[in-house]
Fold this protein.
Amino acid sequence: MSCILIKEFNNHYKMKEAIYQHLKDVDSYTINNSAELEEFRLKYLSKKGILQQLFESFRTIPNEEKKEIGKLINELKQKVEGKFSEIQSKLEADSTENTAIDYTLTPVSMKLGTRHPLSQVRNEITSIFKTLGFTISEGPEIEDDWHVFSALNFAEEHPARDMQDTFFIEKNPDILLRTHTSSVQIRAMETQKPPLRIIMPGRVFRNEAISYRAHCIFHQIEGLYIDKNVSFADLKQTLLYFAKELFGADTKIRLRPSYFPFTEPSAEMDVSCSICKGKGCNVCKHSGWLEILGCGMVDPNVLANCGIDPNVYTGYAFGMGIERITMLKYAVKDLRMYFENDLRFLNQF
Ligand code: PHE
């Protein structure tokens, strides 16, 4: 780049030419780092720099030329200062960008989600039965009449076969949304030979009005054990072990006679209230007991329906609602909360 010394000006024409040249030079001047920026500053903006020299020479030119040359010098000054501050802020931004990554900093921990409370309780229940040698089995949510009702010994006129209670997809032959996971019992017994020891979690559907204690979609876990010489005592001991594992070692159980078409005898099981420890509270309605499941010995008709000889084999079955158990375990007052995806609720689990 040519550098024209002001001292050499012998007339204003030469000075004008020099300023035009400087204007061009500033335009094409490349600056890549702060050292080069400093060089640029020294060359144009310092006390001995080109602009200062131009201002000094300016005093010596004839008055009638001052207007034009003054304008040009100002133009050059603005160009130089503009370029200087533009590049200065660009370099500053680059350097903060580089220092923004500090590889020695402890990483900000990622917020991991958690499993839904219903999944947590389902997993807890299935793992208790896994330790007893049960395996997991699943079946379809859309079922036929045979697997949900007929094979399970439901009488023709049973109210569950009514549209009021069951969601039908098709009528004659009936295709419906399963109302309980007992349908998976049938599928297991039809396809596997005893001994059978399975646990069957799944989603079920009932045509019910939604309220704080009922929903048309909910989750069940079914258990089934078929072998030679299985007795009611086996059922009772298994359920006692399960209740102690799930609700705590001091939990008591009681069995009340009940009725299900597919078990005989049938019972409903209560556990001592884990919230008030049996003293009586709002959750157990001051009875000290909470009903958590239905159970019984598999009806011989059901075994026969599935091709298992009831004279050789006996078995027990039980079924429970996961929503209800989760409500009792965590004192959840309204089961609609499970389906609302409200993080204020879910974060508590
Ligand atoms: N299927 C029954 C229900 O949905 C529960 C149950 C399962 C009862 C197995 C006895 C044996 O209420």
